[in-house]
Amino acid sequence: MASKNTNSSLHIVLLCLCWYLISSLGSQVTKKILTIYPKPLFLGEFQFIYTALLASICCLIGQRFHGFYQCFPNGTFPRYYNNMGERRQIDCITRPSKLLLFTIVPLSFCQFVGKYFGHTATSLVPVSTVASIKTLSPIFIVLTQRTLNLGKVQLGKTAYFSLLCLIVGVWIIVRKDYEQKKPISTKGPIELGAYSSYGIICAICSMLIFVAQNIYGKSVFTYQKKVISQKMDNAKAESPLPSYVTRKSTSCERKNYDKLTLLLYIPLVGFCLSFGWFMTLEFPDIWNECKVAGFSAIPWKLFFVNGTFHFLQAMITFHLLGEISTLSYSIANLMKRIAIIAVSWAFSGMQVTTWQILGLLLNVFGLFLYERSKSGTIQEKKI
Q1: How many domains does the chain have?
Q2: What pLDDT is stored for residue 50 in this prediction?
Q3: Greater confidence, 318 or 103?
Q4: Percent of the chain with pLDDT over 90
Q5: For the Sugar phosphate transporter domain, which residue ranges apply (predicted)?
Q6: Who's near 107: CB < 8 A, 6+ residues apart?
Q7: If you count DSSP H runs as helices and E runs as strands, how many of each does the chain have, helices first?
Q8: CA–CA separation, 48 vs 307, rounded Å?
Q9: Which residue segment(s) compose the domain that 238 sits in?
Q10: Confidence of residue 22 (pLDDT cuts 50, 70, 90)
Q11: Do residues 49 and 311 make contact, with C-beta atoms less than 8 angstroms apart?
């Protein structure tokens, strides 16, 4: 029994390490792409369509091979098989419906706008700056809930102290990154450093968009509990594509959507929503460049590597949500953000100062303290 628990713990640790590595490398590849080819809308369009393609391939493999289907927690795939291993759903891909589209259109819109601002910020400021700004999301979630009266927000002194630590930590990291940044020349006459303030604004906008997505998801939908796993109860919406179910309908039944169905349709709808903007703002420049230098002007290898990392990160997130508790996932996700910041400093080659380490430690302490205080509040409500 002890050996089984040890193997399970080792499996989770290795999975988290892979998660951190893929997320950190994916962020660096994104930075590399947007540095040599600053087309944030094009990168977002490619991620959308490539993610949908990989999700379709996974659905096809899961339908054909029961062993592959069983490697993932319940709710990852459409219900191809029942508990006895017999086929249940014939269609490889869940057919779209009005309810499905109504569910995913707001999420797809937030994905499109959030990606655009996030990619723009990544092209203008260090990855560590973007990642540290994302750690401010709990503050804006609390402010939005209080402003719009979306729920009874009861925070103690510990939670407020944790939010203060987050603010100070992010301020230190952003300030020191700004002081140490090395302007990188682009194709235009203006250097990257001139856009640092705009990049920070874009990073804040991206974070706010995803906060709005999470608030919308919690106010209109509730997380799936009984069908997938009790471990997903109130899981953080930081996962790339969280699984939602609708509130009580007229038939008093809930409509459940698996992860790969969401991972397939949300990018497709996001692609359609952003296609007009892409054709208007970036496609003419891309077409002119391709006419001169051919399609080799686009760093396709980096695009495919980035898209693969993006998809693998989502799949690992889904697997972790089905294997560990909510608090454990929150702490693991906290450490992922810290890993991205640390790896960003290592790849950038900048000299890490004592102040930056202090800001990082304040981020760790603030996020951990916030998760613990929030978890304690939830337990008190249950009791």
Answers
A1: 1
A2: 95
A3: 103
A4: 18
A5: 11-370
A6: 213, 216, 217, 241, 262, 266
A7: 13, 2
A8: 9
A9: 2-382
A10: very high
A11: no
